[in-house]
Amino acid sequence: MAKLLLGKEVNASINEEIKAKVEKLKAQDITPTLGIIRIGEREDDIAYEKSAAKRCETLGVAYEKFLLPADVKEEEVLKTISQVNKNDKIHGVLLFRPLPKHLNEDRIVNALAVEKDVDGITDLSMAGVFMGKDMGYAPCTPSACMKVLEHYGIDCTGKKVVVIGRSQVVGKPAAMMLLKKNATVTVCHTRTVDMPSVVKEADIVVVAAGKAGVIDGSYLREGQIVIDVGINVNEEGKLCGDVNFEEAEKIVDAITPVPRGVGGVTTSILLEHVVDAAIAQNR
Ligand code: NAD
After folding, report:
1. Using a 6 Å cutoff on CB, does residue 217 contact ligand 1?
2. ipTM for the complex?
3. Is residue 269 domain-resident?
4. CA 48 to chain centre
5. What's the whole-model pTM score?
């Protein structure tokens, strides 16, 4: 049976670091604060907002919500972002996306000050990831994948890593971050031919396809490490990953389960970024 790579074990060590940094900031009268901008009432946004708020409370990070109606005018959103940019009590911003269709997401996202872009959504943050430069913050989900690997002492140097998915939020930045760690990276997507044989070649497989159970046992082999980024709801209404867990755990060496894997680490990374942003902005 595969070893389980558990988010809570990774979080325990990140949380210790966050708490120590928060204590230092509070001794200087600084409370690291996350600004949460939510447009509309999407259920998944609200669920993530609640879990982020709970985690903030546990770690001594404050948060302030900016709630806008789903039919909000673009100028109103840009005004909110400009206010948050200027507010030196807010160190980082979480803006829920996708935005309602009538809004220009590109314009809105890139109005955010890069030093407050703790979720890594602006073009400048992304450029930082691709150029290996310290600009803004790397997106939280691929950062969480890297943190899981690091926590469990899995060295990427020289390893063959296959990333499944090429989205802007997960797949592409994950590939760049793995490359930075000296992995030999292959990115698979919907047009990849003979994906099972490509995936079988990998030492580490990072799956971010957004389709429940799409990677089953026929893609996998003994000795592999599988990081399942997917968060889906199956036919029975239960949370599940992009990997068929029952099949995979019998084959591979180690795997992140869903839930209890990468998901919770993503929130920890977000808060780590907020605290780091508070430190950077008060230097
Ligand atoms: P997306 O839909 O934007 O991108 C999916 C990518 O996978 C695309 O590039 C597509 O080409 C590829 N793909 C889809 N089906 C495929 C298939 N059958 N074979 C090969 N490639 C395929 O999704 P995303 O935003 O990148 O998210 C991916 C998954 O990660 C989703 O399940 C999402 O819920 C989850 N997610 C998790 C977290 C977290 O914190 N753990 C955060 C963000 C997203």
Report:
1. no
2. 0.97
3. no
4. 12
5. 0.96
Question: Which tens digits make up the pLDDT trace of 261-282?
Answer: 999 999 999 999 999 999 999 9
172 and 225 part of one domain: yes
Task: Give the C-alpha separation, 53 to 47, whole Å.
Answer: 10
Q: pLDDT, tens digit, for every residue of 16-60?
A: 999 999 999 999 999 999 999 999 999 999 999 999 999 999 999
The finding on whether 233 has its CB within 6 A of some atom of ligand 1 is no
The Å distance, Cα 278 to ligand 1 centre, comes to 31
Q: What does the alpha-carbon distance between residue 177 and residue 202 come to, in Å, rounded to a whole number? A: 17
- Residue 144 included in any domain: yes
User: What digits encode the pLDDT tens for the residues 96-115?
Assistant: 999 999 999 999 999 999 99
Q: What CATH number is associated with residue 78?
A: 3.40.50.10860
Contact, 283 vs 33, CB < 8 A?
no
Give residue 147's domain range: 140-263
Q: Which of 189, 227, 240 maximizes ligand 1 atoms within 8 Å of its Cβ, making it the mutation to test the pocket?
A: 189
Q: What is the dihedral sign for C-alpha 50, 56, 57, 58?
A: positive
Residue 94: inside a domain: yes
